[in-house]
Amino acid sequence: MTFNGNLNIKQRGQSVLHIDEYDETYLIPLVDAKVKGFLAGHLYPELYGKYKIVASSGYVSEMNFQGSGFFTGQTNQFSASVYHIDKGSESSVYTLQGQWCEKYQIHDSIKEVIIEECDINSAKPAALVSSPEEEQDSWETGRAWKKVREALEKGEMHTTVREKTRIENGQRAMRKREASDGVEWKPLFFYKTHDQNPILQALANSASETLVHEKTDGVWTVDKKMASNFRRPFHDSLTPAE
To answer: Is 101 helix (H, G, I), strand (E, B) or coil?
Structure first.
């Protein structure tokens, strides 16, 4: 993360998503981003670069995030195409064009017609499913970030920064104590390996993508057994900000 008038966030790594309903697996890259508008006092995000989402079905979604043009003033511009690996990027099935924060069109490349116009502002968001806040552990998102969320909703940026910093400093202090005591923090719901994940590698190879294992912190996987048998409290009386 660097700052040169914009806050530049460069991410490394990929994630693997499996959808049980269709028995398909997707390799999804982490996208580079910028936070712009510091000088104008109006912060907004921009995504940058070219990326591929690779599916086990053989289809690839190739995306190009362009950011805002200096003269056009339109932010969050992108273009994308969907094609089968066997036929190559020149034989796309669908293409997309527009702003990922506002409106974009989906074009059927074979029939040469627009099949859908998506308006993000009118889209109905998926319902958030979680335990009631009063039942959550202090480490669960709803409770851990409650004061930060409330401050953001009220537009109280000083309070937002104060509460966010309180949690971050608490976590830094925990890491220092663990290092001093020779204790390693053990995640509850994930486990890490440094072996090359065969599913991830196969998807990357199919689209000629290169995985740089030495620049990532191993492969993190959900521990399904722990996730299905969790019990509160997660860490006894310990809280994230201690």
So the answer is: coil
